[in-house]
Amino acid sequence: MSRILAVAGKGGTGKTTLAALVLRHLLRAEKGPFLAVDADPDANLGVMLGARPEKSVGQVLQDFLEQKLSIPQGMPKQQWLELQLNTAIYESKGLDLVEMGRPEGPGCYCSANAVLRDFLERLSENYQAVVVDNEAGMEHLSRRTAGKIDQLFMVSDASAKGIRTVLSLLELIDELKLNPGRKFLVVCRAEKLDPRLEAQVAKLDVEYLGAVPQDPNIVESDLSERSLLELPGDSPAVRAVAEIMAAAQAPAQVEPVAKVMERR
Fold first, then answer.
1. Read out DSSP for 109-134?
2. Helix or strand or coil: residue 72?
3. CA atoms of 49 and 227, how far apart (whole Å)
4. How far apart are CA 235 and CA 261, in angstroms?
C-alpha cells in the first residue's frame, strides 16, 4: 500500500521546491515507482521536474461537465470519465505526474470530485509513494480529494506570516478531521529562525524537522530551465532534504525548537 506525502503552505514559501526535492530524494533512496500530484492551479511542480503534461485533470473534468466529450453508447458516464482521467497522467521512468488544474466556470463539482477522489485512490495503489503539492488554499484537502495523508509537510519561510499560515492550516486540518499520520514543519530559504519565531513554532502541534537553506544551484536550475531532479548530491538544499526525510522516517519525537536549530 502506497503512502501519501502532502506538502502545504503559503504561496512563495518554497513548498513546490520542497515537493520536488522530496521526490528527488525518494527516487534515489527508495524503490519506486512514485507519483507526483500537482494540486496547485499554478502547476509549477511539473516545470521543476522537467515534465510537461498535455492536459490537466481539471481540463478533463471541465470537458466532461460541459459535455464536450462524446461518450460511447452503452458506456456508463463514470467509467468513461475514469478512462479520460487516465489520459492526464504524464509517465516517465520511475516517476509519473498528474496536474490537477481546476475546472473553470460556475457549477457544482460534487459528483466530479467524488469520481476524482476514487480515481486518485485507485491510481495511488500503483505507486510506492505519492507526493502531493497542495495549493495555498488547501482546496483539495478541504474537498478530501487527496485521500488519507500519512505525512503532512507544512512549509513556511522565516516570517511571522508564514508561521501564522501554518497555524491556519492546523486549524483547517482539525476542522475537517483529516487526521494525517504525522504533521511536520519545514522552514525554507533560511539557515535559522529568529528566536521570536522559535517561540511561536514551539507552541504548534507539529514536529519541526529543520530548515532548507537558500541554494544557488536551485536558482541556476530555474534560469537554465533544468529539472531539480538533476541537482548534484552535494547541493545544500539536497543535503538538507536528505536530513529532513531521515527525520521524517524516524520514530515520532517532538523536540524543543531551539535544540533542533542548534543541532542543525
1. -HHHHHHHHHHHHHHHTTSSEEEEEE
2. coil
3. 5
4. 20
Beta bridge partners, 7, equal 133, 153
Give the CATH number, domain containing residue 258: 3.40.50.300
Give residues with Cβ within 8 angstroms of 173, minimum separation 6: 141, 152, 179, 180, 183
- Name the pLDDT band for 256 (thresholds 50, 70, 90): very low
pLDDT tier, 258 (very low <50, low <70, confident <90, very high otherwise): very low
**For residues 149 and 6, what is the distance between their CA atoms, to the nearest angstrom?**
7
The span from the CA of 33 to the CA of 127, in Å, is 5
User: 38-75: per-residue pLDDT in tens?
Assistant: 988 788 999 999 998 999 988 888 888 777 667 888 88
HSE-CB for 163 with a 13 A CA cutoff: 16
Please identify which residue in the block is written with the cell numbers 466529450.
69
Q: What is the distance between the alpha carbons of residues 218 and 43, in angstroms, rounded to a whole number?
A: 18
Model confidence pLDDT, tens digit, residues 187-208: 999 988 888 999 999 999 999 9
**Domain of residue 22, residue span:** 3-263
Which residues is 98 bridged to in the sheet? 37, 89
Do residues 45 and 98 lie in contact, with contact meaning Cβ atoms separated by under 8 Å?
Answer: no
Count how many domains the chain has: 1
Strands laid side by side in the 89-90 sheet: 89-90, 95-99, 34-39, 129-134, 3-9, 151-156, 182-188, 207-212
